[in-house]
């Protein structure tokens, strides 16, 4: 067999395998989209008539805000939290050894003073150097601690917190006024709820005043618009669908509400790259092993607005960190994979996240190499073309579904021009942007062991200055 024939045979067999893989994956995508649509319809019908949002069963919440070098956004973030519509809550800002003047800005702005607090060290954290509060803002507490990373800062917040539920919120984000009520609804409705996540939206391009959204608008840069579409896909299709199966594997670190005793039960946050996903996997594992009924929910109407990277450099850093976190979580909990003991988590969501989310970039990159070889050796077959056509069409379909679910449900972008732009950019996203992010996610495998487990960072901008 000649070299051309051998290469042609390899390309043909690999292409058939890839075609089957893409068809199976996209069939699963369609199923998730259908589940998401059905779930959203039911959710909106209930939320539109629900009058039990605040009641005697509304539990007080400790809001934990881990902060590291957040001087540009920390005051806006705290202001928005102080203005939340919720019966009883406390805000605990944890300064994780910031190298800028984050701590000093907060102390000065709110006229805080050092107080003596007896720490309840139920989960491990680095040394706490001081705790600050004031008579004017009795529900605002600032914890200053030695640097240990985001997970460690959250653990310190848990140890200081007083209430049975805690909400983890990023310091470069802010939540809408009624978001806390909405994300807490599952805890009121289902006693077995141990975690509930909110939806994260991109604040870039939006008009924000005094820590509150005035008008939602699309950002100007192409790289930011692509991320708006990605967030629609991730939250309104993927997470809504998985939540309907009680197999949700991630609650965004930017906005999540937890039963404190459940998190303490599994040892708190661990110092990993993707502490948010790793915690959810541990909760699933523990409650299934102990045969304790539980529910991990997603409140798609509880909105958190966050700053997204506005440059390729910042986006690359974020995506490398995210994918290393995914790999790390999958490896730490690999015993769940295809394990019927863990039900839908072991047989559905873990295989999906391993084979599609984690290994997908590698499989897709090999596909591009196969395409290049096929063109170079003039053995391009219809099968290879079908693969890339299927990948392109289903990628667009998935993006369109996210946009449509947004418009059918919450309609945050009311301008017809902006909606049309989102559909148009969904086409552009599949050519160029997708390949760049695939390459970055592939690089995460190569530098996985070298990857830092400390804070990731993007260039922060003040929200009121157009962040």
From TrEMBL:
Residues 62-207, 224-393 form the Glycosyltransferase 2-like domain. Keywords: Glycosyltransferase, Membrane, Transferase, Transmembrane, Transmembrane helix. Signal peptide: none annotated. GO terms for molecular function: glycosyltransferase activity. The keyword Aminoacyl-tRNA synthetase does not apply. CDD domains: CESA_like. The chain crosses the membrane at residues 12-37, 352-377, 383-405. PANTHER family: POLY-BETA-1,6-N-ACETYL-D-GLUCOSAMINE SYNTHASE. Belongs to the glycosyltransferase 2 family. This is Glycosyltransferase family 2 protein. It comes from Proteinivorax hydrogeniformans.
